[in-house]
Amino acid sequence: MTGPTDYTGSRVLVTGGSSGIGAALAVAFADRGATVGIVARRKDRLAEVLGRCRAHAPASRMWVADLADPQAVERLAGDAVEELGGVDVLVNNAGIPKRRHVTALDMATVESVMAINYLSPVRLTLALLPPMIERGSGRIVNVSSVAAPLSSPGEAAYDASKAAIAVFSEAMAVDLWDTGVKITVVYPGVVDTELFTLPDNDPFAGGVDAITVGEAVATILEGIDSGSHAVYVPRYFSEFAEAKARDVDGFLAGSAAYVQSLATKNRSDPGDGA
Ligand SMILES: NC(=O)c1ccc[n+]([C@@H]2O[C@H](COP(=O)([O-])OP(=O)(O)OC[C@H]3O[C@@H](n4cnc5c(N)ncnc54)[C@H](OP(=O)(O)O)[C@@H]3O)[C@@H](O)[C@H]2O)c1
């Protein structure tokens, strides 16, 4: 059995490195020897995470950017290549939730979710891919969600953005099969992060136990180490995706019954649920 991958000498760029999964992944990569670059909007939070990365990897860097802005993404790609000397591993982790019933969605909201969860990681990928192909090596890790394969109810805009990045990634993996550039899609379930308390979202319906960020990151790193194309976090969520693929009609009927049972439960016990 081989141990964890040693990233000494590697340059790893993690988007959404100011909190949650991205912050913990960045520190974990630094702990394994990588020089890490992190990016997000909150400067103070990034600086705190950068301090923890630099304890392992002193040349690590941070950039403050709003990745919904296409020009900021292009600038980030240039800055990362210049200041890190290149990017060997790109982790497209930055993302926003959108828990909102389809009847309350408007196009501006749908487009804003697509901009950060789909268009931004694709733009960064296309900007950083050519040097990876030229070197004949590289790894792109795109963080999707189980909300994509499971079509999570009450989150249509979010689900679609995460399905888009997952499918883009799988097609890209085949296009790049012999280039030495490897692609991984991560499908987290429910991980205890700030994602569930951000404003402008319906309350989280609950019903699924959250795992810790530490548990999620351990599973993600194991998945990357194993070379898997699809990493479910926790792993058992892949069984739900397989069950849905076998019987979409039955799965959607089950989802509808589940949503109704949660609504009934929350009506009788309004204090329950996050
Ligand atoms: N937690 C879960 O249960 C779960 C489940 C499935 C998938 N995921 C996915 O996992 C990824 C990480 O989420 P998390 O759970 O760790 O939540 P989080 O703590 O809220 O992290 C989200 C990260 O994305 C960054 N971000 C958001 N909008 C941005 C923007 N416009 N420009 C730059 N950075 C931006 C945030 O930084 P700033 O606010 O500082 O910009 C933050 O660092 C997301 O893609 C999420 O969809 C999470």
Outline of the structure:
This protein is α/β, with parallel strands linked by helices. 50% of the residues lie in helices and 14% in strands. The chain has nine helices and seven strands.
Can you describe this structure?
With 274 residues, the chain is α/β, with parallel strands linked by helices. The protein has one domain (11-268): 3-Layer(aba) Sandwich (Rossmann fold), CATH 3.40.50. The chain is built from 9 helices and 7 strands. The protein has helices at 20-31, 43-54, 70-84, 107-135, 147-150, 156-175, 213-226, 237-246, 248-268; strands at residues 11-15, 35-40, 61-64, 89-92, 138-143, 181-188, 230-233. Strands 3-2-1-4-5-6-7 form a 7-stranded parallel sheet, with helices on both faces. Helix 7 links the parallel strand 6 and strand 7 (230-233). Helix 8 crosses helix 9 (248-268). The protein starts with 10 loop residues before the first strand and ends in a 6-residue tail after the last helix. The mean pLDDT is 95. NADP nicotinamide-adenine-dinucleotide phosphate binds next to helix 1.
Topology:
Blueprint: E1 11-15, H1 20-31, E2 35-40, H2 43-54, E3 61-64, H3 70-84, E4 89-92, H4 107-135, E5 138-143, H5 147-150, H6 156-175, E6 181-188, H7 213-226, E7 230-233, H8 237-246, H9 248-268
Parallel strand pairs: 1-2, 1-4, 2-3, 4-5, 5-6, 6-7
This protein binds NADP nicotinamide-adenine-dinucleotide phosphate.
